[in-house]
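Q: For a teaching session next week I want to show students how multiple molecules come together into a single three-dimensional assembly. I've collected the sequence lines for a complex. Could you give me the predicted structure tokens for the whole thing so I can convert them for display?
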Amino acid sequence: MTRYSIWSLARNALSHHADWPRQWRSPAPRPAYDVVIVGGGGHGLATAYYLAKEHGIANVAVLEKGWLGGGNTGRNTTIVRSNYLWDESAALYELSLKLWEGLSKDLNYNVMLSQRGVLNLAHSLGDVRAGRRRAEANRLNGIDSVWLEPEGVKKVCPPLNTSASLRYPVLGSTWQPRGGTARHDAVAWGYARAADARGVDIIQTCEVTGIRRDPDGRVAGVETTQGFIGAGKVGIVAAGHTSVLAAMADIRLPIQSHPLQALVSEPIKPVLDCVVMSGAIHVYVSQSDKGELVIGAGIDGYNSYAQRGSVHVLEHQTAALCELFPVFARLRMMRTWAGIVDVCPDASPILGKTPVPGLFINGGWGTGGFKATPGSGYVFAHTIARDEPHPVAAPFALERFTTGALIDEHGAAAVAH
Amino acid sequence: MLLIECPWCGPREEPEFHYGGQAHVVRPADPAALSDADWAAYVFLRDNPKGVFAERWCHTAGCRRWFNVLRDTVSHRVLAVYRMGETAPAVDPALVEGAR
Ligand SMILES: Cc1cc2nc3c(=O)[nH]c(=O)nc-3n(C[C@H](O)[C@H](O)[C@H](O)COP(=O)(O)OP(=O)(O)OC[C@H]3O[C@@H](n4cnc5c(N)ncnc54)[C@H](O)[C@@H]3O)c2cc1C
Ligand SMILES: [Zn+2]
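A: Of course. Below is the structure for the complete assembly, covering every listed component.
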């Protein structure tokens, strides 16, 4: 792997950037691997990277039915934060945020983490109570959350309409300064390049169509559009398609797949230097480095695998945007799109072993898994390598739906990501 | 946006309706006899097919009645609409994108 640096940039500038080497190989699949990861999004690639780096398991393939990061990783609105309510989630998302903070260096790849701060607005007495409680809970867990009164919110974000005449006035907000955004594609590409450099095979346009098991029930490998590939262990990291993959091993999950849409405006000069989210009136917004406003909201209500949602959902979120930022009312929107998100009843992921020996699941991240990409890969790699859950992953096991130990993060997740 | 045919009011646009998830989930006959795993299955585990899905909708902004819909989760095509208590009609596989 050629290291990226100011020198390699200068050297390649001399040849007009025509001689950059490929970032990863595109090998034909080998007949068998120690571990096969199904899904080449950020979480799958991060899992492969940490398997090689932390556990010395490099005989690994990542199988992706389309192209790297073409799922939710490349479709998401890139908000990164760790201000979740419960201790279990705080541990997972904060581990992630810490990894984010060193990620560009670790991967030798600029993931463009921009810690510009995240506001989660409150619009009702219930919101205020929940927000304050969450900020306090965060601080007990060492997370940099604070509660802001409306004047403080206005200071952080001047273009925001904090007047009392709003239909749902801003009554306060949580504020996490270390939150922000990152470059979604770079996360997939950076992990892919670093995993490849450690020997991981990344195989695109290879769809898994079946999961083969031994007579004793243990995973033996996967059927794919490029033939059978043997595997000692298989990790399902397929986001919206988690249920479809699990069904191949006769596992039913508490997951429902929904479209989640987003849209971007025409690029404008810098106007918004933090992330603003409102779970109550259903919109969130940040400004990309290119100047576009990146706008998202809640899921479409119905189950779907179509990567397409309904226009009334977009109408609702742009109405909420214009109420919060009257200054944006005349902006034109450039593109809309959707991803398929795998939603769990408690708005927390499923991370761990399954009833099938050798088969592991990392899914159910729903509307908010991008922020967790590094931590998720880190604890999932440990879980696969040791065949036992990483302590941070343990509470997120599938069994919680039987024991009743749900991790209810609807308040922290909701519309919000 | 979906165009959904309410069995009582006829075709109406999606925002008039509320989604109710999987249809035909049967309440356990003897709840006290259920194991934790059975309860988990009843309360949380759901079908999530890529293809034909039997689901419930409520016409909240209209007659306010619940009914069942068979819908393709890949094309979003509404394949059949039928009333509560009725069994799902057969669908023409040629109309289903998800199964292909
Ligand atoms: C519009 C939108 C906005 C979002 N905004 C945010 C946000 O601001 N912050 C945040 O934290 N999260 C956000 N999310 C959620 C976030 O995108 C996801 O939780 C996260 O990216 C999931 O990563 P992943 O690697 O698990 O999934 P993906 O990137 O979807 O990767 C899964 C991969 O599996 C592949 N696959 C599926 N089936 C098969 C098969 N049979 N064989 C081989 N490969 C298969 C898919 O092609 C896909 O590439 C958003 C999501 C959407 C859709
Ligand atoms: Zn009706």
